Amino acid sequence: MFKIIVPGIFLLFSYLQYNDGNDAYIWALMYLMAASVSIFNSYLTKYKIYFLLSLCSFLFVQIINSLFTNQLNYDLFYEFGGITIVIILCYTKLTKEN
User: Fold this and answer.
1) Does the pTM of the predicted model rise above 0.90?
2) CA gyration radius, the chain
3) How confident is the model at residue 36 (pLDDT cuts 50, 70, 90)?
4) What is the pLDDT of residue 97?
5) By the 8 A CB rule, do 3 and 38 touch?
6) Model confidence over 69-93: pLDDT tens digits?
7) Dihedral (CA of 18, 9, 56, 81) sign
8) Can you spell out the DSSP letters for the chain?
């Protein structure tokens, strides 16, 4: 059940990012990678997780920059929630393998 619902949610998130804004392709890539990490368990999964975490750190820095330079936007909190969900997924996959 985990291998059906969680990737489906990430694929839905990826689809919803299609017309979001300037960084929509980065978010769509991040959610597609999260879906592939949750479905597949190969020898490349660990490297996908590292790439996914580097995308999360890039987007986190972008969110912090937007918080300090622009006025308060509630979309930033939604983006932070998406990053948190992806980090939780990466943490659970890394701890299952070890």
Assistant:
1) no
2) 14
3) very high
4) 60
5) yes
6) 887 777 788 888 889 999 999 999 9
7) positive
8) -HHHHHHHHHHHHHHHTTTS-TTHHHHHHHHHHHHHHHH--STTHHHHHHHHHHHHHHHHHHHHHHHHHS---THHHHHHHHHHHHHHHHHHHHHHH-
